Known about the structure:
Elements: E1 3-6, H1 15-28, E2 33-38, H2 43-48, E3 57-60, H3 68-76, E4 81-86, H4 92-99, E5 103-108, H5 112-132, E6 139-146, H6 153-164, E7 174-175, H7 178-186, H8 201-220
Parallel strand pairs: 1-4, 1-5, 2-3, 2-4, 5-6, 6-7
Helix pairs in contact: 1-8, 4-5
Amino acid sequence: MPTIVFATSKGGAGKSTTAVLLATELAGQGAPVTLIDADPNKPLSQWAKRPGKPDSLTVISDATEETLVDHIEAAARTSTFVIVDLEGSANRSIVYAVSCADLVIIPTQGSHLDAAESVKTLREVRNVEKIRKKGSIPAAILFTRTSAAIRPRSLQAIENEFVNSGVPVMNTQINERDAFRALFSFGGTLTGLDSAQVSNIKAATLNARAFAAEIIAMLKRPTAQPAVRAEVA
């Protein structure tokens, strides 16, 4: 069963948010999903304690650097999807998790400093490939907290740099949405949020579904790579 790892060497990139979005979308389709919280701050474990977690979603909250691989291997035997949320820093957990990964997603915000850190994480993935010696480890950068209405020139410039350098980038971007933040306040899934408390849930749900659909499409491709963004070609 595929293992999807969310990794970045920089905190605050939206790693835990995107892991929850993917896990709840897949679980909402009825798939058994295991979410492994390997972040010492335990954001996913705190989310799981709130009401509304899908029944088909299991959250492992006691993963450590020493036990991470064992948790991933055990979860892969019982779940259709295994999703790993790592600490937002460079440490050995990245090496251990990436060595087990079928796909690595590297969230980043649209600034040059964040983009540089995401490329460092991508290089780490390539280094693990050399150690593992079992072929390539598919990986892609995911832009997060972007505007749904405007694409700033600075973001377009980063996208162009990535494309020209052959850096794989997901077509879908995770927009800045109140509903995504609300998941960690109220728990549960996007569709379970109260529209009286949270704005524009429908748009957030469509964004999350597009993200999950692209992940599934990437896993089905032989190289598990995203298509090149047409508007950035």
